[in-house]
Design goal:
With 358 residues, the protein is α/β, with parallel strands linked by helices. The protein is built from 14 helices and 10 strands. Helix content is 47%, strand content 18%. 34% of the residues are buried.
Length: 358
């Protein structure tokens, strides 16, 4: 009798499921498991060794080759997260072996502010040379024979070379700002069209996306009762873009609220902003001790000819579902050039030991 009751209950559940608009179609569950495993194995082999950033060998090594996913860089204002994002994406995109086209959505700054940074970081000249070349031309015009004029002339020559490099990189990298893109729906539409364009030229090619910053994203089709609800939606949506819709790497920066003390950011600071920590494939907490504590900083660089401490960006790999590494890496940050470079393994170890003693 009890067995009959069980069968009847199961039949009722099955009948009800047939009426459910979200029902799952019938399948051979054993056979589809084999199909799923075959599909996984084929995709895993097709990934190759992952994407490599030549100028960031430690990042590439610890990431064990970049692949599709949602990669977040979270930190306070002026911590250097935008600099890391821009330097990394440009390097991944310019490595021809990756077959990646880099698209950098600058929602925080205009393209006219991003281009000088790109020129500066590629040519190692002050950002101001890229944004205000006329100031340096006036130095030359005042007296072309001075040492200052010679330096200005060198800077302008490098600026010209840097601008030409960006022109030559048009098939590898592009900056799009909020003058062209007004909402998240347009970002996705732009990426879909770009990806189709790229794959039409080379089916093996893909895109890598940067969004600076996630905090500035808005969606025209959505209304939210709070910033947290908006951030929750952004986190889930961008993760879906990266993993399902576009199947590509997406890097995003996130502004954290100003921390009241001299402490470094922690995962709980990101949790306060929404579900980013749960949705991210990897989360990097960004800290810049010099920006935070000025001349009282403990983690810093010294540069010949300067009496001031120079910033070092700390990346805490707080969450990493893509590889086994969950440590901290350190990066030189030349703010005048917007240039981020990795510290050597020896320098990394020295900074780690110093940080542990704090």
């Amino acid at each position: 009798m009890a067995e009959d009751t069980k069968k009847n209950a199961l039949q009722i559940a099955l009948d009800k499921n047939q009426e459910d608009p979200y029902q799952i179609p019938d399948e051979d569950f054993f056979a589809t498991t084999l199909d799923d495993l075959d599909a996984f194995d084929e995709k895993a082999h097709n990934k190759g060794a992952g994407y490599i950033a030549p100028s960031f060998p430690l990042f590439s090594k610890y990431m064990e080759g970049l692949e599709s996913g949602f990669f977040m860089f979270a930190g306070e204002s002026n911590s250097g997260k935008s600099g890391v994002l821009l330097n990394l994406i440009y390097d991944f995109a310019m490595n021809a072996d990756n077959k990646l086209f880099g698209i950098y959505f600058s929602l925080d700054d205009s393209a006219e502010e991003i281009y000088p940074r790109l020129i500066a970081m590629n040519q190692l000249i002050p950002i101001g040379v890229g944004s205000k070349p006329q100031r340096y031309q006036e130095i030359i015009d005042d007296d072309p024979n001075t040492e200052e004029a010679m330096i200005a002339r060198t800077f302008l020559n490098r600026r010209a070379a840097g601008l030409q490099e960006l022109r030559d990189a048009r098939e590898h990298f592009k900056v799009v700002d909020s003058k062209k893109i007004k909402c998240g729906e347009q970002i996705l539409n732009y990426c879909i069209k770009l990806q189709s364009w790229i794959k039409a030229k080379d089916p093996e090619a893909n895109i890598i996306v940067g969004i600076d910053s996630l905090s500035d994203m808005r969606f025209s089709s959505q209304r939210f009762e709070s910033d947290k609800m908006r951030n929750d939606y952004i986190a889930r949506t961008v993760k879906e873009w990266a993993v399902t819709v576009l199947d590509c790497p997406i890097f995003g920066s996130l502004h954290l609220k100003k921390l009241g003390s001299n402490r470094r950011p922690v995962v709980d600071d990101v949790k306060e902003s929404g579900e980013y920590i749960y949705e991210a494939s990897a989360l990097f907490l960004v800290h810049n001790d010099v920006n935070k504590n000025k001349e009282g900083a403990t983690i810093f660089d010294r540069v010949e000819g300067s009496e001031y401490k120079q910033p070092v960006i700390e990346l805490d790999w707080a969450k990493n579902k893509k590889s086994s590494y969950k440590g901290i890496t350190y990066h030189h940050f030349t703010t005048d050039y917007s240039k981020v470079t990795e510290c050597s393994e020896e320098q990394n170890e020295r900074f780690r030991i110093l940080a542990q003693s704090l």
